[in-house]
Amino acid sequence: MTLLTAAGVTKRYPAARRHPLGRRPVRTVLDAVDLAVSAGERLGIVGGSGAGKSTLLRLLLAVEAPDAGEVRFRGRLLRPAAPGRLRWFRREVQFVAQDPYAAFSPRMTVRDVVSEPLRCLRVPGDHPRRIDESLRAVQLDPALASRLPSTLSGGQRQRLALARALAPRPAVLVADEPISALDAPVRVAVLDLLREVTVATGSALVLVAHDLAAVRRACTRVVVLDQGRVVESGPVDQVFRTPRSAAARNLIEAIPRLPSGVTR
Ligand SMILES: Nc1ncnc2c1ncn2[C@@H]1O[C@H](COP(=O)(O)OP(=O)(O)OP(=O)(O)O)[C@@H](O)[C@H]1O
């Protein structure tokens, strides 16, 4: 079953520099991108710096609207709206923050952090039980619930970000470079956990990364973005072994510089 789709999605921003005649030229950052995420699948979105990955995520999360094309969830057209109006969508599609150091309010305990989406999204049911379940799902001891996130390690904080995203039992988890702030061994553990948790819960995963090896560790399918266009897509092993686009080849070339433990 297809959950999240982007069809012909295009996004333009004013270019940084003004034209000498005074007009501000426009840059096309995403150009007619098509994408579909099915229930339970793990899709990676890769591309070099500035390829448009984060912009595509903002459109998929209905934080921004495309200039052309459309994004749908379970067939319903998504448009950025006042927070309450998209509550139904936010329960189903949860975002895993990129930087676990910046993601949490310093005064919130671990329990507060995980319960926040349940309260804000008015998720019905037994919240203490869900908090406990979510912490266990990411292998965090529920005894940590009364601690402040500042007392956790970087890896534990990334697990906490994942526990928070899992608490509403979303159909899709969206993670933007979730390992970029972590040390190499912790990166591998977080990628494995993302894969295992999504398999165990049945959530789909959309993982954005620079790193094709990281995507290969966690995902089954990949979309390669280059200068705002999808230049290649397919099973991640196939793209890895027989890349057809220069962009995919460049990303593979870059792998030896990437974390130890994530190998070709
Ligand atoms: N709000 C904005 N206004 C103007 N330009 C923007 C805006 N957001 C993104 N851009 C530009 O769009 C292009 C794509 O940016 P985006 O952040 O989506 O790329 P990315 O693939 O996520 O890159 P990175 O891996 O470096 O984070 C960049 O050139 C960026 O400068």
Structural features, described:
The protein is built from 9 helices and 10 strands. Helix 3 (110-120) packs parallel to helix 5 (154-166). The chain has 264 residues and is α/β, with parallel strands linked by helices. The two termini are 31 Å apart. It has one domain (43-53, 81-257): Rossmann fold, CATH 3.40.50. Adenosine-5'-triphosphate binds at residues 13, 29, 47, 49-55, 210.
Topology diagram in text:
Elements (H helix, E strand, L loop, with lengths): L1 E13 L11 E13 L3 E5 L6 H8 L7 E6 L2 E2 L9 H6 E4 L13 H11 L6 H11 L16 H13 L5 E5 L7 H18 L2 E6 L2 H7 L2 E6 L2 E7 H6 L4 H8 L11
Parallel strand pairs: 3-8, 3-9, 6-7, 7-8
Antiparallel strand pairs: 1-2, 1-4, 4-5, 9-10
Helix pairs in contact: 3-4, 3-5, 4-5, 5-6, 6-7
The structure holds adenosine-5'-triphosphate.
The site of adenosine-5'-triphosphate has 11 residues, from helix 1.
Query: How would you classify the helix and strand content by structural class?
Result: alpha/beta
Largest sheet: 6 strands, mixed
How helical, in percent, are the residues? 25-40%
CATH architecture: 3-Layer(aba) Sandwich
The separation of the N and C termini measures: 31 Å
Strand order of the largest sheet: 6-7-8-3-9-10
One letter per element, helices H and strands E, the order comes to EEEHEEHEHHHEHEHEEHH
Write the CATH homologous superfamily.
P-loop containing nucleotide triphosphate hydrolases
| Basic shape | globular
Number of strands: 10
Bound molecules: adenosine-5'-triphosphate
Give start-end ranges of low-pLDDT stretches: none
Which class in CATH terms?
A: Alpha Beta
Mean pLDDT: 90
The CATH topology turns out to be Rossmann fold
Cα Rg: 19 Å
